[in-house]
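Good morning,

Attaching, inline, the backbone tokens for the sequence recovery test we're adding to the shared suite. The designed sequence is right after.
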């Protein structure tokens, strides 16, 4: 008797029903992943019934500024800080707020005015620092949310909270939730891509943790694919020496058959992930070289992004890559740029950081608009919190001026994708310390992003360890006043 037949006869009753359930689950998975080839627009994957309602945005580019840009020097003009320069910030304003260990024990907290010059721009009259002239030029395309606040005072937990809805690692990131729920519009490229860059001076020790673009308890096929800043954007795309594309195709076919047997035997969704990722890598052998070839981009477009646009791994390069990715069907692109953590170098590093990021950020918005993609592409720019309106350090030591972490209010701007352009929403108090009008919590922000993509944030859930989880936990309200 054939060994496989003999084994089948010896199956236990429990194993039989387990395998039967696996077969049902596999069929259900196949039905979830099925797509109607005639549907428009093309959709790969996603859950049935999503989007819940007509979306205003189809895709997202998140320009995450690691380290936290200083809102009171860039977007939130506060003349009161100038009037009170060097004076102790009133206790009635601070109200016993918690700060990082760098100023937690600092008894003297003198008000520090903006080190930049502010002006109003566009028909909207948005206040923007002179360190961001290109962003000022797109002020009428943006909505500046000036009343965001969070709960975390240190970088990693605060970034994790913004991107996953929880302070501790282990939850799916925003991009993973979106590709899980909505799928993507391409088979040739990942639905979720992450790219990182940092200031050339390496002025701060920000670390890019993989859980910033992880899938948490969702199947790992939904985690972000990280494009590298040097060499091949993705490892192992090139065939090994001596192997042709045809022989690699044959090897993948044989490997797929083996994995399919394992999937039928054990029903582990990670086996399905492995199979799909092998196939994605094979298709990316042709799609990625074309994606990274900027030779057909008009020179005037390259000039918009600035002199670093052709330097792989730079923020400018990543911004243009983001546009090219969404243009080709990627659902979510997450750019993380470190260097904003100016504790002791505000007077030197802030200007450099703005020069590196200002033109590429504005160019991305203008480029999407030029191509007719801005209306249904949501662009987000901001960090994990703001910076203190008081000084970290000694007011007399001008060279080492800095600002500490400030979670109590800060500014993020958004453009396109159903956002009301040319607006500023919310206000901070006279010191830029706390919201004075229309506060927006991180979960409100997340609920609003999902809403723009046609998702009711309370209904996109995943059952894990006996509980239905969602990005916004049990909180969050859509900020309807910023919707176009």
């Amino acid at each position: 008797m054939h060994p496989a037949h003999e084994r089948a006869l010896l199956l236990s009753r429990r194993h039989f029903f387990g395998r039967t359930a696996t077969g049902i689950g596999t069929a259900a998975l196949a039905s979830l992943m099925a797509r109607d080839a005639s549907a428009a627009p093309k959709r790969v994957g996603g859950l049935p019934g999503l989007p819940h309602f007509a979306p205003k945005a189809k895709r997202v580019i998140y320009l995450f500024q690691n380290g936290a840009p200083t809102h009171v020097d860039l977007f939130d003009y506060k003349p009161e800080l100038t009037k009170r320069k060097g004076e102790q910030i009133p206790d009635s304003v601070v109200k016993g707020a918690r700060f990082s260990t760098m100023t937690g024990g600092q008894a003297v907290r003198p008000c520090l005015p903006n080190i930049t010059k502010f002006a109003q721009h566009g028909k909207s009259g948005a206040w923007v620092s002179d360190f961001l002239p290109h962003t000022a030029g797109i002020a009428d395309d943006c909505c500046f949310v000036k009343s965001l606040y969070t709960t975390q005072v240190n970088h990693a937990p605060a970034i994790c909270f913004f991107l996953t809805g929880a302070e501790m690692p282990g939850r799916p990131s925003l991009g993973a939730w979106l590709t899980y729920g909505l799928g993507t519009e391409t088979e040739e490229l990942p639905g979720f891509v992450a790219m990182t860059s940092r200031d050339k001076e390496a002025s701060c020790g920000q670390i890019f943790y993989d859980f910033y673009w992880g899938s948490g308890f969702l199947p790992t096929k939904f985690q972000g694919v990280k494009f590298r800043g040097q060499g091949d954007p993705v490892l192992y795309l090139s065939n090994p020496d001596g192997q042709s594309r045809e022989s690699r195709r044959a090897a993948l076919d044989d490997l797929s058959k083996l994995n399919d047997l394992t999937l039928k035997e054990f029903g582990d969704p990670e086996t399905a992930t492995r199979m799909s990722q092998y196939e994605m890598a094979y298709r990316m052998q042709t799609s990625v070289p074309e994606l990274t070839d900027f030779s057909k981009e008009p020179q005037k477009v390259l000039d918009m992004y600035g002199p670093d646009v052709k330097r792989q791994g730079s923020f400018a390069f990543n911004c243009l890559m983001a546009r090219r990715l969404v243009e080709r069907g990627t659902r979510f692109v997450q750019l993380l740029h470190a260097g904003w953590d100016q504790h002791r170098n505000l007077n030197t590093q802030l200007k450099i950081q703005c020069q590196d990021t200002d033109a590429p950020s504005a160019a991305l918005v203008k480029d999407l608009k030029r191509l007719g993609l801005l209306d249904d592409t949501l662009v987000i720019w901001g960090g994990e919190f703001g910076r203190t309106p008081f000084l970290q350090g000694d007011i007399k030591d001008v060279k080492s001026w800095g600002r500490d972490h400030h979670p109590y209010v800060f500014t993020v701007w958004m453009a396109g994708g159903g956002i009301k352009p040319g607006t500023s929403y919310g206000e901070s108090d006279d010191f830029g310390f706390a919201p004075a009008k229309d506060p927006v919590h991180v979960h409100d922000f997340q609920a609003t992003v999902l809403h723009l993509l046609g998702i009711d944030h309370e209904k996109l859930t995943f059952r894990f360890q006996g509980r239905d989880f969602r990005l916004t936990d049990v909180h969050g309200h859509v900020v309807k006043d910023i919707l176009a």
